[in-house]
Amino acid sequence: MAIYNHILTENQFVEQNDLRYPFEERGLQFGDGIYEVIRVYEGRYYLIDEHIERLYRSAAAIKIHMPFNKEEMYKRLDELLEKNEVKSDAKVYMQITRGSAPRDHAFPDGTEANLYAYVKDLERPVDHLKQGVTAITHEDVRWDWCYIKSLNLLPNVLAKQTAKEKDSYEAILHKNGEVTECSSSNVYLVRNGKVYTHPAKKNILHGCVRMRVEAFCQQENIEFIEEPFQLEDLMYADELFLSSSTSEVMPILKVDSQVIGNGVPGPVTRLLQKCYETDARIPAHASAFQNLRIAE
Ligand SMILES: Cc1ncc(COP(=O)(O)O)c(C=O)c1O
Fold first, then answer.
1. Which domain holds residue 111?
2. Quick one: pLDDT band at residue 295, thresholds 50, 70, 90?
3. Main-chain dihedrals φ then ψ at residue 128, nearest 5 degrees
């Protein structure tokens, strides 16, 4: 496992051990900030445009003034990989907060945003991608503006912890029985060859991989229907899957005690997983599906 010591901040690169976060910091005190997790394959960013667009959209939505423009952000993020000599599969975590100031709910005057971004090795979850995962259902108690990728993740943290305690990979969130997304991914139901998912409204995160899933469906002539589905619909699902930058396109085989479809990853999910690997330029030798047939 490589150690990548250079951390990008708003002013300069610093060594990991030299990074000191201020005590009075709005990210710490209020969760007053935004973040992104960007996938890196063999030292190359995947979906960087989508992540940068969303980052600036989130910043604008909560009126954070970004320390530099998008063009400069691309440059710095490239430098982050170069300086750390990243060649592996990895992830970049970056967060921007409203800054450091004596604690007061209202925005402080004249405070500059704090930014940091680091890179860490991250292997693809190959076993899960092959075999699928289980999920639980959990009430969605988050606020109405989940399209903003805000640092306020307490409901997501609690839902994921509940899933973990039940030996499950994810928590499928629902509001009064209507499925929104998962604690850290988007979720999709397949029925009669069509893919259903919650519309990209304000109450879900508009996942970068979700955008690609929609494009893969178009490319493969699979109907992509942005209609919310209900918890009861799970029992009629042929397939279920989730998507995110770290989980890619992941089959879900069981929800609570309900087996989904035949209890194995289905053909639509497999096809979308293949599309993902092609799109992300995963080399054949690293494919999760070398010895798998697409339809099982
Ligand atoms: C709540 C939530 N939904 C969906 C996603 C998937 O987003 P993306 O595909 O951009 O990784 C994430 C990713 O972290 C998330 O936290």
1. 6-121
2. very low
3. -65, -40
Instruction: For ligand 1, say whether the CB of 185 is within 6 Å of any of its atoms.
Output: yes
Can you tell me the distance from the alpha carbon of 163 to that of 284, in angstroms, rounded to the nearest whole number? 33
Q: Which of 155, 151, 125 is nearest to 138 (CA)?
A: 155
Task: Express each pLDDT in 267-290 by its tens digit.
Answer: 999 999 999 999 999 999 999 987
**pLDDT band for position 3 (cuts 50, 70, 90):** confident
- Ligand 1 centre and the CA of 244: distance in Å? 5
Percent of the chain with pLDDT over 70: 98
Ligand 1 pocket test: which of 205, 241, 243 has the largest number of ligand atoms within 8 Å of its C-beta? Answer: 205
- C-alpha of residue 218 to centroid of ligand 1, in Å: 21
Residues 133 and 277 in one domain: yes
Structurally, the chain folds into a number of domains equal to 2
Q: Whose CA is nearest to atom 4 of ligand 1?
A: 185
**Angle at Cα 207 formed by Cα 79 and Cα 82, nearest 5°?**
10
Say if residue 110 is in the same domain as residue 147: no
94, 156, 244: residue to mutate for ligand 1 pocket, most atoms within 8 A of CB = 244
| 293 part of a folded domain | no
Catalytic annotation present for 91: no
**Residues 194, 263 share a domain:** yes
Q: How far apart are CA 289 and CA 105, in angstroms?
A: 50
Instruction: Tell me the mean pLDDT in the region 192-216.
Output: 98
pTM more than 0.90: yes
Q: Which residues 6+ apart lie within 8 Å of 175 measured at CB?
A: 139, 140, 203
pLDDT at residue 293 tops 60: no
Residue that the structure tokens 């494009």 belong to: 215
SS3 165: helix
| 252 and 150 housed in the same domain | yes
